[in-house]
């Protein structure tokens, strides 16, 4: 299964805003948030009403910078789905330019009881 979404690099995704750098360009933490969002939405329809997914692990190679206002297309492929565990590979593009590659793991949790574990 493959899934793709395009997101704009707004101020909230920049390295300067996130504190990961000094430039107003797409920061790695912002790119990670984009990837997690796309993966989360890719499997949302596979979940029960009281379930959601949370990130477990992420691997990223952030290869090139992207300017404020750039349109970033995140393409994910669900590589493995076992019980409550999803494994994705992804690529991120700024137009035709490949800017990042990596993998991401998510797990299913109960929406009602997950936050209780933070106490």
Automatic annotation (TrEMBL):
Q: Which residues form the Fluoroacetyl-CoA-specific thioesterase-like domain?
A: 9-111
User: Which residues take part in binding CoA?
Assistant: 55
Superkingdom of source? Bacteria
Residues holding substrate: 55, 106
Question: Can you tell me which residues form the catalytic site?
Answer: 28, 36, 62
Residue ranges that the Swiss-Prot or TrEMBL entry lists as coiled coil: none
PANTHER family in the record: BLR0278 PROTEIN, THIOESTERASE DOMAIN-CONTAINING PROTEIN
The protein here is known as Fluoroacetyl-CoA-specific thioesterase-like domain-containing protein
From which source organism is this entry?
Vagococcus teuberi
